[in-house]
Amino acid sequence: MRIAVTGGAGFIGSAFCRHIMKRDDIEYLVVLDALTYAARLENLESISDDRRFAFVRGDIRIPSDVSDMLSRYRPDVIVNFAAESHVDRSISYPSLFIDTNVKGTGVLLDEALKHGIKRFHQVSTDEVYGDTEIESRRRFREEDPLLPSSPYSASKAAADLLCLSYRRTYGLFVTISRCTNNFGWGQHAEKLIPKTIERSLRKERIPIYGSGENIREWIDAEDHSRAIEWIINNGESGEIYNIGTGLELSNIALVRMILRMTGGSESLIEHTEDRKGHDRRYALDSSKFTRLSGLSLTAEETMKSLERTIELLSCKTSSTSL
């Protein structure tokens, strides 16, 4: 199998690259990444010496960058992780998210058609469904309507619909996965878990939007990678797969957990004005994926992974930045 991964130097994309390179049947893995602020070549260091790996610096919004990469490496599969992903930034700079997440995906789809790509996988998010009440037991299913709240989630929803239109109109083999919040090694410092760990260790104020009761579902980036591996091998064209674990935590509960594990004081917590359009709760019904793949991602196992990750990131942060 020859795979092209766009956005492969980012947090989740690089986790997938490191995971998939463990397979013996990978003939070639090429990463196309513009190396914007959230991407780091260091995320790919462990596989950079593998003769089957190649890195190309390029922008998914530029057709020639994509075309040149596809012409040279002739992949069978494109997995698109490339996206602007931070909600706060999307509120400040919505046009950037539209440009990258919608236009960029459109460029990739056009070039996939031109170059005869056999499979195109779009990595999406649970945020496209919008939110549900904190007290609700509702979990979003793949057939639920899309009701995104932020420019980020709206741009991802638009990209999903664009992918499905290329499948219907042009016959492109397209699959989509919608995943919950990821944690793991190499996550950008602006995200909640690494930011809280660093601020706790430095004894700095930890800002929390509103009451902090907003709930998110969490998954280890390694488990997310395993799920995408199954989809690009077994998924059916036109299908959407929710990927979650059932581990739901309020933001305030997660911050308190990190403080407890890092020896920080809850007095560091600072409640701030709530984010505009702040979604209350995300929760996915992943039964379709679990039934078809046989991969069971449980809340209990994910909590253990989260605790290990917090311990590892705390040690790393303590040794490198304090």
Shape: globular
CATH topology of one domain: Rossmann fold
The computed structural class is alpha/beta
User: What are the low-pLDDT stretches, counting only 5+ consecutive residues below 50?
Assistant: none
Q: What's the gyration radius in Å? A: 19 Å
Order of helices and strands: EHEEHEHHEHEEHEEHEEHEHH
Strand content: 15-25%
Q: CATH homologous superfamily of one domain, by name?
A: NAD(P)-binding Rossmann-like Domain
Number of helices: 10
Question: In the CATH hierarchy, what is the class of one domain?
Answer: Alpha Beta
Characterise the protein shown here.
By secondary structure, the chain is of the alpha/beta class. 42% of the residues lie in helices and 18% in strands. The chain is built from 10 helices and 12 strands. It has a 7-stranded parallel β-sheet, sandwiched between helices. Helix 6 crosses helix 8 and helix 6 packs across helix 10. 44% of the residues are buried. The mean pLDDT is 95.
Q: Which labels suit this protein?
A:
three-stranded mixed β-sheet, Rossmann fold, 10 helices, 322 residues, 18% strand, seven-stranded parallel β-sheet
Could you write a compact summary of the structure shown?
The chain has 322 residues and is of the alpha/beta class. It is built from 10 helices and 12 strands.
